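We were asked to recover a plausible sequence for a given structure. The inputs and outputs are reproduced exactly as logged, with field labels preserved.

PROBLEM: sequence recovery
POSITIONS: 289
GIVEN STRUCTURE:
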């Protein structure tokens, strides 16, 4: 009986309890090298990953621009509860498409009926569904308790739970995300530096060891997976940030603009940062058989 299966030996140090499939020795050695002298995102103090807002019933709390204008025109103070929102489908690599969606951020204990009567009238249309929610605050019109609502209004990295492409975007426009989206906030490591690392070919390659793809071939970028990505902090982050700024300016003006040259520069800097040799770069870029 003949077989096309390859048989080889593997150093035990290259395997861990989390691995249930075998890569060749070179790839496992490369995985170990990428992890060396790095910290997982979840281990870096000052970096936090948060899930988007769980409303319990999106049709009530997510409104379009027409309704936003109507509520804002009728009562100026309603503006403080109307927050810009991005859906996963709006997020691209580096940047996002503008959205027509807004979130009614009714808080955990705000008295919407008393203080925001027009928003109350809107929500009352959905009272039957809202009363049934497990995810709710003090009253049926409130959102669930959440300590990190304010984080959505900070400079951040955003992405969707599932994405057909490896894509993280920059946001400094205070967008909220729904429950199938995530945000990353950093008070220590520059956000744009982290964006460069996350969008690199190297981190995309590393995802193959720890991540899950959907049956349709989309990336599943859940909280626990992102927390496991290994990040090395450069002594000088400014060259990375400068390139990201160029990409953001270019993509903001025209999302179809070609920034492959700038991205290649970032990839090269990331390879150097992680100490990769030319043959290891070939592995990452799929140039080896």
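RECOVERED SEQUENCE:
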């Amino acid at each position: 009986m003949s077989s096309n299966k390859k048989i080889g030996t593997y150093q035990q140090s290259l395997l861990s309890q989390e691995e249930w499939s075998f890569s060749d020795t070179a790839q496992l050695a490369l995985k170990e090298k990428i992890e060396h002298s790095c910290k997982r995102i979840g281990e870096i103090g000052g970096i936090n990953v948060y899930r988007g807002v769980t409303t319990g019933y999106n049709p009530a709390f997510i409104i379009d621009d027409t309704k936003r204008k109507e509520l804002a025109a009728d009562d100026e103070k309603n503006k403080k509860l109307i927050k810009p929102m991005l859906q996963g489908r709006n997020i691209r690599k580096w940047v996002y498409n503008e959205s027509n969606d807004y979130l009614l951020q009714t808080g955990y204990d705000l008295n919407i009926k008393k203080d925001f009567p027009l928003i109350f009238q809107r929500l009352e249309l959905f009272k039957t569904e809202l009363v049934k929610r497990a995810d709710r605050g003090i009253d049926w019109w409130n959102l669930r308790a959440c300590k990190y609502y304010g984080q959505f209004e900070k400079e951040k990295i955003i992405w969707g739970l599932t994405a057909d492409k490896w894509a993280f975007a920059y946001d400094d426009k205070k967008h909220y995300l729904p429950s199938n989206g995530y945000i990353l906030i950093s008070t220590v490591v520059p956000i744009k530096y982290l964006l460069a690392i996350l969008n690199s070919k190297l981190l995309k390659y590393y995802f193959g060891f720890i991540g899950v793809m959907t049956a349709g071939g989309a990336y599943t970028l859940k909280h626990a997976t992102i927390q496991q990505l290994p990040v090395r902090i450069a002594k000088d982050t400014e060259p990375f940030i400068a390139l990201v700024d160029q990409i953001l300016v270019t993509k903001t003006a025209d999302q179809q603009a070609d920034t492959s040259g700038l991205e290649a520069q970032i990839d090269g800097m990331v390879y150097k940062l992680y100490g990769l040799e030319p043959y290891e770069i070939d592995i990452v870029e799929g140039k080896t058989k």
